[in-house]
Amino acid sequence: MADTFRSTREVILRTEAWDQATAFYGSVLGLSVSYRSDQLVGFETGSFCLYVERGAAHGPVFEFLVDDVGAAKARLVAAGCTVVEEDASVPRCYIRDPYGFVFNLHGQ
User: Fold this and answer.
1) H or E segment at 72?
2) Global pTM?
3) For the chain, what is the radius of gyration of the CA atoms?
């Protein structure tokens, strides 16, 4: 049976303006910090957790849990999706669907 996709509550936004972005979400919006490291700050929004990551900017990335990341990735690529970024050490497998939606595949 094919993988089922289930969303998590996590959204990642990567930016080179990390100090300004974390100040904005923490001070201007008043979101509480739920996670902090040198590269990543998580903010609790109520419905989802927004993670702001240091690095080359990209738009928001949502996350789907799957049983088998490799099988899900192969299925999605065969259906017209493209791999945007992949790093097994994170783990990270960002996929863009044919309609522009970018999401990470994460093993359950």
Assistant:
1) helix 69-78
2) 0.88
3) 15
The answer to whether the CB of 11 falls within 8 A of the CB of 48 is: yes
Q: CB count, 10 Å around CB of 37? A: 9
Q: Which CATH number among 2.60.120.1440, 3.10.180.10, 3.40.50.1820, 3.40.50.11720 corresponds to the domain 6-107?
A: 3.10.180.10
pLDDT at position 90: 85
CB count within 10 Å of CB 73 equals: 18
Compute the distance between CA of residue 28 and CA of residue 96 in angstroms, rounded to an integer.
Answer: 31
Give the pLDDT score at 51.
97
> Using an 8 Å Cβ cutoff, are 39 and 16 in contact?
no
Cis-peptide, bond into residue 91, ω within 30° of zero: yes
**Percent of residues in the chain assigned helix, strand, coil, to nearest 5:** 20, 50, 30
